[in-house]
Input
Amino acid sequence: MNKDSPKIAVIGAGIVGLTTAKLIQEELKKASVTLIAEKFHQETTSCVAAGIFRPGTSFRGATPEITKKWVNDSWHYWQEILKSSDAVDAGVMGFDSYIFSKDNYSVTRNHLIEDLVPTYRSVDEDELKLVGGNWKYGSYFSTLKTGCEKHLPWLEQIFKSRGGVIVNDKVDSFTSLSKYDLVLNCTGFGAKYLCNDYNLVPMRGQVVKVRAPWLKFAFYGDYDTYIIPGLDGVATLGGVRQYDSYNLAVCKHDTAAILERCYEMLPGLKKAEIVEQRVGLRPHRMPVRVEPEMVGGLKVVHCYGHGGYGVMCAPGTAMNAVELAVNLLKGNSRAHY
Ligand SMILES: Cc1cc2nc3c(=O)[nH]c(=O)nc-3n(C[C@H](O)[C@H](O)[C@H](O)COP(=O)(O)OP(=O)(O)OC[C@H]3O[C@@H](n4cnc5c(N)ncnc54)[C@H](O)[C@@H]3O)c2cc1C
Output
């Protein structure tokens, strides 16, 4: 290995792979970085996501401290983009959100972001009546979203402008990458096969995209109901969370259930044109895997298994993966053999 200009491969062109590729270029300016992926842009799970910044309270890394750092680092990363002239091109937009429940006040709270976002408060009686549904409990918080339909091409263009090389290929084993000094594995659900990782489980999701440019807030309700404003006036309505389901086809019963719940909350949505319906398999893993490993003599850093929170937490986990990669290249890491 040339110590000054290591050869690095990043596998995966979803939001985790492209963010990691951009950050490793920034950290190791002389490295030659190749990004290898089977699928790009609209074909990735990242492009199915609404991309809102709201972690589930069970989202977790190896320790509570690591989880919190991922969330905090991610928020500050997105804020930097949001404040910059790049925000529109990068597909990042800020807005506020309501979360309501009929059963339980605690589900409207979120210990991972309450001390982070500028506003997180309980709603008053009037706000409970803002939308249909006879809600008993609610909270209001500031958030943002990243639309991968714009964000992935934006990242890819930056990566290429810095000399990054993109290869469209499927990696069947790490052995085929032995010419690289280090590999960053950002394969999302693909890691199930590449790493024989039985802890990775598909959590099927389905969403309906509708044209609703008037929507300025996000709304959450019980049973995975959500209405999220989006880029170019296209909002995302959801959803479902089906554990261990591999079904990538749109299910008409899921569509009917999503629309019924969302229309009850916001009857105005009945007039919104349906633009498309998407299905994706969230790469669910407890904990998300960000760790180094020696695979047959090859230095590998894994960064996958973000479940339903991979868009919002891509930056924080990518920063962690890049730090591990730099240490591994220097020979300072405690990688598992
Ligand atoms: C309906 C739905 C709604 C969601 N909403 C949100 C949300 O609001 N907020 C949020 O933060 N997250 C959300 N998510 C979750 C989010 O989409 C995922 O966590 C995230 O996209 C994971 O990103 P990734 O880059 O790891 O995976 P992917 O986007 O799946 O990318 C994986 C990449 O790896 C490549 N790859 C895999 N295996 C191989 C291989 N062997 N060789 C070569 N290439 C390979 C693929 O081709 C692809 O390029 C949602 C998901 C769904 C399904």
About this structure: Residues 209 and 236 are 5 Å apart (CA to CA). The chain has eight helices and 14 strands.
